[in-house]
Design brief:
By secondary structure, the chain is α+β, with helices and mostly antiparallel strands. It has 3 helices and 3 strands; from the N terminus they run E-H-H-E-E-H. It has helices at about 10-15, 15-25, 75-84, and strands at about 5-10, 30-35, 35-40. A 3-stranded mixed beta sheet has the order 1-2-3. Strand 2 (about 30-35) and strand 3 (about 35-40) form a beta hairpin. The relative contact order is 0.12.
Length: about 80
């Protein structure tokens, strides 16, 4: 049985570390704004070890790529919109 707890946005901001620990233990934390649920905090469970590349990338693999430029123009537009 999954335990579910609800926290306000203010509680989530001030108690994030505790809420993350609860999620890691298997609890589901619902974040509510003005009493209305808006988000769910749950643990990410990944079976097995993290994936490892069979052939590591070398510096020359990045030649000609501007790593500071967003991969997709829509990402930049979305980021710009958040700044306004």
């Amino acid at each position: 049985m999954i335990m579910v707890m609800q926290a306000s946005v203010a509680q989530a901001k001030s108690q994030l570390a505790d809420l993350l620990r609860r999620a890691e233990r298997g609890e589901e934390v619902v974040i509510a704004r003005h009493g209305q649920p808006v988000a769910r905090l749950v643990a990410i469970h990944r079976p097995g070890p993290p994936p490892v590349s069979a052939s590591p990338l070398r510096a020359k693999d990045y030649a000609g790529i501007d790593l500071d430029e967003p991969a997709f123009a829509s990402w930049q537009k979305a980021e710009d919109a958040r700044l306004d």
